[in-house]
Design brief:
The complex is a heterodimer. Chain A is 36% helix and 17% strand. Chain A is an alpha/beta fold. By secondary structure, chain B is mainly β. Chain B has a single domain, classed as Ubiquitin-like (UB roll) (Roll).
Chain lengths: 201, 67
């Protein structure tokens, strides 16, 4: 497949991103550059100065909702991408509605209990939709320990599954970016396996 | 009994174990985790009542804050 055929193929898909922080903003940028046609993003937070240490935003966007700023940044990267942005807190109730029709969902939350909540929700309410989770991205160094592990056809985890964020292990751009791009790469890999015939059904 | 735990064969005592017993036995103390048995997610409130049997494929994934 040539590069233009790959972009054409990827343009037909819809990918959900849950959270627009370090993992979500960087993963969205990689998917937009790859040409994934529709991105569904959801977050309720506003950009704070400290976020700029790892999140794909800019100084003039501080104080702006992450959904608004991310939509703006994606349009600057690739105006052909359709972005559906929802500014609300994701819950067991709204996840199946907001991400309905998505071919794949990327988990990009900060908190472990939210990660658990979306895994339980997508696995029980949206059977068959692959979920790409991030877990263990804090600190620096030892990047070989960050990997993408396939649990089964519907669940993948990118990260080292052991480094938790703390005073000694803050979130920093390099490792967060590695994991976010690994999540994006897993999305591309899964979408490339989907046949184009899928759309003619 | 022999099970598969995160893609590796493991010998565990007895014919069956609950998920809680397995976690205790293996000294898996970290709280935030997802467990799937033969592809089916086991909710946390079912750890005491869900049995692991010979040949089961148990997948465990740890959830770390940060992202």
């Amino acid at each position: 497949m040539r590069s233009s055929d790959i972009r054409n193929h990827l343009s037909r898909f819809r990918v959900g991103i849950a959270g627009a922080g370090g993992l979500g903003s960087n993963c969205a940028a990689a998917l937009a550059r790859s040409g994934v046609g529709t991105l569904v993003i959801c977050d309720y937070d506003v950009i704070e100065p400290a976020n700029l240490s790892r999140q794909s935003y800019f100084t003039n966007q501080v104080g702006t909702l992450k959904t608004i700023a991310l939509k703006e940044n994606i349009a600057r990267i690739n105006p052909d991408i359709i972005v559906l942005a929802y500014t609300e807190k994701l819950t067991r109730t709204n996840i199946p509605k907001i991400y309905s029709g998505c071919d794949i969902i990327v988990e990009a939350f900060d908190r472990d209990d939210m990660k658990e909540m979306i895994i339980e929700t997508v696995q029980s309410e949206m059977p068959g939709v692959p979920l790409i989770v991030g877990s263990g991205v804090a600190g620096w160094g030892n990047t070989d320990s960050i990997r993408c592990r396939k649990i089964d056809d519907t669940l993948y985890v990118c990260g080292d599954e052991s480094t938790e964020v703390s005073e000694e292990h803050p979130l920093m751009a390099p490792r967060v970016g590695i994991a976010a791009n690994m999540q994006a790469d897993t999305v591309v890999e899964l979408l490339m396996k989907k046949s184009s015939d899928y759309f003619r059904l | 009994m022999k099970i598969i735990l995160n893609n590796r064969e493991e010998m565990l005592p007895g014919e069956t174990l609950t998920v809680s017993e397995m976690l205790l036995l293996k000294k898996f103390s970290f709280k935030m985790r997802i467990i799937k048995i033969n592809g089916v997610l086991v909710p946390k409130d079912k750890y005491d009542s869900t049995l692991i049997k010979e040949g089961d494929n148990v997948q465990m994934l740890y959830l770390m804050s940060g992202g």
